[in-house]
Fold:
Amino acid sequence: MNRILAVVRKEFLHILRDRRSLAVAVLMPLAMVLIYGAVMDMELRDLKVGVLDLDRSDRSRELVRAMTSSGFIVAAEHLPGREEIEPGFRQGRFLAALVVPRGYGGDLARGEARVQVLVDGADASTAATVANYLQAVVATVNRDLLREAGLAAPFGARTRIWFNPELVSARFVVPGLVALVLMMICALLTSIAITREKETGTLEQILTTPVTPAQVIAGKVLPYVALGALVCTMVLLAGKWVFGVPMAGSWWLLAAYCLLFIVIALALGLLISARSPSLRVAMMAALMVTMLPTMILSGFVFPIASMPGPLQVVCRLLPATHFLVVLRGIMLKGQSWFPLQTAALVVMAAVLLTLAVRSFRLRLE
Amino acid sequence: MSGEAAVFARGLTRRFGDFTAVESLDLEVAGGEIFGFLGANGAGKTTAIRMLCGLLPPSGGEARVAGCRVGRDTGALKRRIGYMSQRFSLYEDLTVLENLEFFGGVYGLGRAELAARADELLPRLGLDAERGRLTGSLPLGYKQRLSLGCALAHRPRVLFLDEPTGGVDPVARRGFWDLIYEQAAAGVTVFVTTHYMDEAEYCGRVSIMVQGRIVALDTPAGLKARTGGADMQDVFLRLVDA
Ligand SMILES: Nc1ncnc2c1ncn2[C@@H]1O[C@H](COP(=O)(O)OP(=O)(O)O)[C@@H](O)[C@H]1O
Ligand SMILES: [Mg+2]
Structure:
């Protein structure tokens, strides 16, 4: 125990002495919460919409006014005709167009009103968000107008966006950042820390002492687990306090899954450091195997559903993909039962850990 | 150590693929002796030392160090030896004291013990004034003395020093050898490689290794008498050319 503590203490000193890496590890995730959260929030608040009112009735004017008074939508301009929509998108004058068809007022009175929403699809990830958002706004406004008119809302007209009704993107970014932070600190930094000792010869020096390889590894990874947990907590709290990201489920369950994911990240880090001939290779490998897929393929930023088939298969093989489903489930929906994801994560942890231990033994002999 | 050799090797061999780096090494070093393990670059000295320290499994032969069978009693062996590798391998981003405390710590020393040992070792190594300095900022000679200190933290019985004085000036080397003498006088067996032939004169006995084999093993005086060399430099050249 004394021996492990000596390694832990030394590793903490390394972390504290390397101010630059520490700053990156701590500040980058926080900056990402703030930037992503703020940028997405702003985009939705000032969403510019082109309005084409073909009905020109009191009812249709009411609809447009009700929508723009929500504060999230700015009626950028009133369009004279359909042919003006595409140039508007091209010139970036608005991101979406609302078309109120002829006869809307009458339809509304009969309880079957329809409007058309056109969204600029050039930016696929915001397009879906914007479309959903506008649909929700239209549905709400329609329902209110109907209620005022003393009519019951038709059942199918209610569009609701589940689990993220305000569409504040920090809610989606924060769970992803947790995965990214854990990968960065527990896989990337750990593999760098171990490979560096191999390269400078200090690992061999340690191996001449009675400390066992298992003790060395334990002592080396514990500080990174602590750092990872600390930064994750900071990200979660920042998300909660600044953007009101909810915590619908249990913190304990969240912590348990984070621990499972940490095991996977550590195993990956160990595997990389055991297999890498040099620090440079280890860094590249860790970036390619852990950070990039977590950012690009886990559904953190780009929705998996909109990826081509083969890529979706790759996504399913990534621990982060399953981890994100669990995190979002716990945080946004308050779920607590994830049989598929849990099975996938446990199998991945077991396989990676076995591989890591095996290749580490080989290396040390 | 009840008459048993502090370092004993018989037929110790290490191959890397087809290449034999150390071929059937036989030697015995008595407790408290300063044994010089000489040889040109690439002769196989480091490979032999790494086998004796249990860092590299031998391809053949056997060895006993400080009463422990190498490759068997690994835990006890590691507690009884100190190893200073040929490359400087301490943590440059830690201070002198932190390095010493770390190595003492992995040898299992407690806090109080560590503090006492540091207070004893640092002045003796001439590093007391530098205890708070980052190791990376020290001159090479200081780093080597600190490496020695880290290898000594747990009071080993046998000390393996692999080219401990490479790259420093004669005054610094002389100072380092004073420390080696101190340890030997305290009963520590010192197994040291070097390619400075003046340092060979300081050893009780020396072996000379050429291409993985020991070609001569005797006291410096004995070797000079046998080969007719004027000094160790001369002896070495005659043996290596032979
Ligand atoms: N891990 C290794 N793999 C292959 N060859 C090695 C390895 N380690 C050492 N050697 C070779 O063994 C020979 C002896 O090396 P070494 O023991 O370092 O010599 P010395 O310490 O006497 O300079 C050299 O030719 C070296 O290239
Ligand atoms: Mg060598």
About this structure: The interface with chain B takes residues 2-3, 5-7, 9-10, 13-14, 17-18, 200-202, 204-211, 365 of chain A (CB under 8 Å). The two ends of chain A are 24 Å apart (CA to CA).
